[in-house]
Amino acid sequence: MPYGHNPAAGKFAAVRGVKLYYETYGAGAPLLLLHGNGGSSQDFAQTIPYFAKKYRVIALDSRAHGQSADAGDSLSFELLADDCAALLTHLRLDSAYVLGWSDGGITALLLAQRHPGKVKRLAATGANLWPDSTALMPELWQQMKRGYQEGRTQHFTDAKRRNDWKVFLLDWRHPHVPLPTLAGIKAPAFIIAGDRDVIRPEHTVAIYQNLPRAWLWIVPNSGHATLHEHADEFNRKVEEFFRAKFPAKASH
Q1: How far apart are CA 181 and CA 130, in angstroms?
Q2: How far apart are CA 198 and CA 220, in angstroms?
Q3: Segment 71-79 mean pLDDT
Protein backbone atom coordinates (compact mmCIF):
# COMPACT_ATOMS: atom_id res chain seq x y z
CA MET A 1 0.00 0.00 0.00
CA PRO A 2 1.57 3.33 -1.02
CA TYR A 3 0.74 5.21 2.20
CA GLY A 4 1.29 8.93 1.72
CA HIS A 5 0.76 8.54 -2.05
CA ASN A 6 -2.51 6.66 -2.27
CA PRO A 7 -5.00 8.44 -4.58
CA ALA A 8 -7.80 6.12 -3.45
CA ALA A 9 -7.46 7.30 0.16
CA GLY A 10 -5.99 10.81 -0.24
CA LYS A 11 -7.71 14.19 -0.21
CA PHE A 12 -6.78 17.84 0.24
CA ALA A 13 -8.49 20.12 2.77
CA ALA A 14 -8.21 23.85 2.19
CA VAL A 15 -7.87 25.25 5.72
CA ARG A 16 -6.11 28.28 7.19
CA GLY A 17 -4.49 29.29 3.90
CA VAL A 18 -2.92 25.90 3.08
CA LYS A 19 -4.05 22.73 1.35
CA LEU A 20 -3.47 19.95 3.87
CA TYR A 21 -3.10 16.47 2.43
CA TYR A 22 -4.50 13.54 4.40
CA GLU A 23 -5.45 9.92 3.81
CA THR A 24 -8.37 8.08 5.41
CA TYR A 25 -8.59 4.36 6.14
CA GLY A 26 -11.14 2.21 7.96
CA ALA A 27 -14.30 3.14 9.85
CA GLY A 28 -15.18 3.82 13.46
CA ALA A 29 -14.08 6.43 15.99
CA PRO A 30 -11.72 8.95 14.34
CA LEU A 31 -7.99 8.59 15.01
CA LEU A 32 -5.65 11.36 13.82
CA LEU A 33 -2.03 10.33 13.10
CA LEU A 34 0.70 13.01 13.27
CA HIS A 35 4.20 12.28 11.92
CA GLY A 36 7.58 13.72 12.88
CA ASN A 37 9.95 16.38 11.56
CA GLY A 38 10.71 15.94 7.86
CA GLY A 39 8.36 12.95 7.68
CA SER A 40 4.90 12.37 6.23
CA SER A 41 1.86 10.13 6.59
CA GLN A 42 3.83 7.27 5.01
CA ASP A 43 5.72 6.95 8.33
CA PHE A 44 2.61 5.16 9.66
CA ALA A 45 2.78 2.17 7.28
CA GLN A 46 3.03 -0.18 10.29
CA THR A 47 0.36 1.68 12.26
CA ILE A 48 -2.48 2.29 9.80
CA PRO A 49 -3.40 -1.35 8.96
CA TYR A 50 -3.75 -2.25 12.64
CA PHE A 51 -5.94 0.70 13.65
CA ALA A 52 -7.96 0.81 10.41
CA LYS A 53 -9.70 -2.39 11.56
CA LYS A 54 -11.52 -0.51 14.32
CA TYR A 55 -10.98 3.22 13.75
CA ARG A 56 -11.46 5.79 11.03
CA VAL A 57 -7.76 6.58 10.64
CA ILE A 58 -6.85 10.04 9.35
CA ALA A 59 -3.14 10.22 8.46
CA LEU A 60 -2.10 13.84 7.93
CA ASP A 61 0.84 15.41 6.12
CA SER A 62 1.61 18.44 8.32
CA ARG A 63 2.04 21.74 6.49
CA ALA A 64 5.44 21.97 4.74
CA HIS A 65 5.66 18.15 4.85
CA GLY A 66 4.74 15.43 2.37
CA GLN A 67 2.09 16.71 -0.04
CA SER A 68 1.01 19.65 2.15
CA ALA A 69 2.86 22.58 0.60
CA ASP A 70 3.27 25.76 2.64
CA ALA A 71 4.40 29.13 1.32
CA GLY A 72 4.86 30.68 4.78
CA ASP A 73 8.30 31.67 6.00
CA SER A 74 8.24 29.92 9.38
CA LEU A 75 6.57 27.14 11.36
CA SER A 76 5.54 26.67 14.98
CA PHE A 77 3.85 23.86 16.86
CA GLU A 78 0.99 26.21 17.75
CA LEU A 79 0.45 26.70 14.01
CA LEU A 80 0.46 22.93 13.40
CA ALA A 81 -1.90 22.27 16.31
CA ASP A 82 -4.35 24.89 15.03
CA ASP A 83 -4.14 23.24 11.58
CA CYS A 84 -5.21 19.93 13.17
CA ALA A 85 -8.17 21.56 14.91
CA ALA A 86 -9.21 23.19 11.63
CA LEU A 87 -8.91 19.88 9.77
CA LEU A 88 -11.16 18.12 12.30
CA THR A 89 -13.70 20.95 11.97
CA HIS A 90 -13.45 20.71 8.16
CA LEU A 91 -14.20 16.96 8.44
CA ARG A 92 -17.15 17.77 10.74
CA LEU A 93 -15.55 15.85 13.60
CA ASP A 94 -16.06 17.28 17.08
CA SER A 95 -13.10 15.30 18.46
CA ALA A 96 -10.66 12.48 17.73
CA TYR A 97 -8.16 10.13 19.29
CA VAL A 98 -4.67 11.39 18.44
CA LEU A 99 -1.40 9.51 18.02
CA GLY A 100 1.73 11.59 17.42
CA TRP A 101 5.36 10.65 16.89
CA SER A 102 8.20 13.09 17.68
CA ASP A 103 7.08 16.51 16.33
CA GLY A 104 3.64 14.92 15.95
CA GLY A 105 3.64 14.13 19.67
CA ILE A 106 4.43 17.75 20.48
CA THR A 107 1.61 18.84 18.15
CA ALA A 108 -0.77 16.38 19.86
CA LEU A 109 0.00 17.88 23.29
CA LEU A 110 -0.50 21.42 22.00
CA LEU A 111 -3.72 20.42 20.25
CA ALA A 112 -5.04 19.08 23.57
CA GLN A 113 -3.89 22.26 25.32
CA ARG A 114 -5.21 24.81 22.80
CA HIS A 115 -8.35 22.94 21.63
CA PRO A 116 -9.30 20.74 24.60
CA GLY A 117 -12.64 19.71 23.12
CA LYS A 118 -10.98 18.26 20.02
CA VAL A 119 -8.95 15.50 21.71
CA LYS A 120 -10.59 12.42 23.23
CA ARG A 121 -7.23 10.89 24.22
CA LEU A 122 -3.70 11.33 22.98
CA ALA A 123 -0.64 9.12 22.69
CA ALA A 124 2.70 10.87 22.13
CA THR A 125 5.98 9.04 21.52
CA GLY A 126 9.35 10.79 21.50
CA ALA A 127 8.03 14.29 22.25
CA ASN A 128 9.90 17.17 23.90
CA LEU A 129 8.67 20.46 25.40
CA TRP A 130 11.64 22.75 24.68
CA PRO A 131 14.70 22.74 22.43
CA ASP A 132 17.93 22.31 24.40
CA SER A 133 20.23 19.65 25.86
CA THR A 134 18.11 19.23 29.01
CA ALA A 135 15.31 17.82 26.83
CA LEU A 136 17.24 16.35 23.90
CA MET A 137 20.23 14.03 24.16
CA PRO A 138 23.42 16.16 24.00
CA GLU A 139 24.69 14.39 20.85
CA LEU A 140 21.52 15.32 18.95
CA TRP A 141 21.62 18.87 20.30
CA GLN A 142 25.26 19.29 19.19
CA GLN A 143 24.39 17.93 15.75
CA MET A 144 21.49 20.40 15.46
CA LYS A 145 23.75 23.23 16.61
CA ARG A 146 26.24 22.39 13.85
CA GLY A 147 23.39 22.24 11.33
CA TYR A 148 22.23 25.68 12.41
CA GLN A 149 25.74 27.19 12.23
CA GLU A 150 26.19 25.81 8.71
CA GLY A 151 22.77 26.83 7.43
CA ARG A 152 22.13 30.23 8.95
CA THR A 153 24.35 32.22 6.55
CA GLN A 154 23.12 30.44 3.42
CA HIS A 155 20.60 31.84 0.97
CA PHE A 156 18.51 28.95 -0.27
CA THR A 157 17.39 29.55 -3.82
CA ASP A 158 15.54 26.31 -4.62
CA ALA A 159 12.19 25.73 -2.96
CA LYS A 160 12.99 22.29 -1.51
CA ARG A 161 16.10 23.43 0.35
CA ARG A 162 14.29 26.52 1.60
CA ASN A 163 11.46 24.32 2.87
CA ASP A 164 13.92 21.86 4.49
CA TRP A 165 15.57 24.76 6.33
CA LYS A 166 12.19 26.01 7.57
CA VAL A 167 11.38 22.49 8.82
CA PHE A 168 14.79 22.25 10.54
CA LEU A 169 14.24 25.60 12.27
CA LEU A 170 10.96 24.33 13.70
CA ASP A 171 12.90 21.88 15.89
CA TRP A 172 15.82 24.24 16.49
CA ARG A 173 13.62 27.09 17.78
CA HIS A 174 10.57 25.28 19.17
CA PRO A 175 8.60 24.19 21.15
CA HIS A 176 8.35 26.23 24.35
CA VAL A 177 5.83 24.52 26.61
CA PRO A 178 6.39 25.16 30.34
CA LEU A 179 5.79 21.99 32.39
CA PRO A 180 3.14 23.58 34.68
CA THR A 181 0.93 24.38 31.65
CA LEU A 182 0.43 20.62 31.08
CA ALA A 183 -1.91 20.67 34.10
CA GLY A 184 -4.49 22.25 31.79
CA ILE A 185 -4.63 19.15 29.54
CA LYS A 186 -7.80 17.32 30.51
CA ALA A 187 -7.62 14.50 27.97
CA PRO A 188 -5.98 11.27 29.12
CA ALA A 189 -2.45 11.08 27.69
CA PHE A 190 -0.10 8.16 27.02
CA ILE A 191 3.51 9.36 27.13
CA ILE A 192 5.95 7.02 25.38
CA ALA A 193 9.67 7.01 24.60
CA GLY A 194 12.41 4.52 23.86
CA ASP A 195 15.01 3.87 26.55
CA ARG A 196 17.58 4.95 23.93
CA ASP A 197 15.43 7.75 22.50
CA VAL A 198 16.85 11.11 21.37
CA ILE A 199 14.66 12.59 24.11
CA ARG A 200 16.20 12.37 27.59
CA PRO A 201 14.28 9.83 29.71
CA GLU A 202 13.99 12.26 32.62
CA HIS A 203 12.35 14.78 30.28
CA THR A 204 9.79 12.18 29.18
CA VAL A 205 9.10 11.32 32.84
CA ALA A 206 8.66 15.03 33.68
CA ILE A 207 6.04 15.36 30.92
CA TYR A 208 4.18 12.36 32.36
CA GLN A 209 4.39 13.67 35.94
CA ASN A 210 2.92 17.05 35.00
CA LEU A 211 -0.11 15.66 33.18
CA PRO A 212 -3.19 15.17 35.37
CA ARG A 213 -4.32 11.92 33.71
CA ALA A 214 -1.52 9.96 32.10
CA TRP A 215 0.19 6.66 31.51
CA LEU A 216 3.95 6.31 30.99
CA TRP A 217 5.78 3.73 28.89
CA ILE A 218 9.54 3.74 28.44
CA VAL A 219 10.03 1.09 25.76
CA PRO A 220 12.97 -1.23 26.51
CA ASN A 221 15.60 -1.69 23.81
CA SER A 222 14.17 1.08 21.63
CA GLY A 223 15.42 4.26 20.01
CA HIS A 224 13.30 7.16 18.76
CA ALA A 225 11.21 5.08 16.33
CA THR A 226 9.26 3.09 18.96
CA LEU A 227 6.31 2.66 16.58
CA HIS A 228 8.57 1.01 13.96
CA GLU A 229 11.06 -0.88 16.14
CA HIS A 230 8.33 -2.47 18.29
CA ALA A 231 5.34 -2.03 15.99
CA ASP A 232 3.13 -4.90 17.17
CA GLU A 233 3.54 -4.19 20.87
CA PHE A 234 3.28 -0.44 20.27
CA ASN A 235 -0.03 -0.76 18.41
CA ARG A 236 -1.50 -3.10 21.05
CA LYS A 237 -0.47 -0.86 23.95
CA VAL A 238 -1.82 2.31 22.33
CA GLU A 239 -5.13 0.62 21.58
CA GLU A 240 -5.29 -0.67 25.16
CA PHE A 241 -4.77 2.91 26.36
CA PHE A 242 -7.50 4.26 24.05
CA ARG A 243 -9.95 1.71 25.52
CA ALA A 244 -8.90 1.76 29.19
CA LYS A 245 -11.02 3.16 31.98
CA PHE A 246 -9.76 6.40 33.57
CA PRO A 247 -8.73 7.72 36.06
CA ALA A 248 -5.78 5.34 35.97
CA LYS A 249 -3.46 7.48 38.06
CA ALA A 250 -3.85 9.22 41.42
CA SER A 251 -3.85 13.00 41.27
CA HIS A 252 -0.72 14.67 42.61
Answers
A1: 13
A2: 14
A3: 95
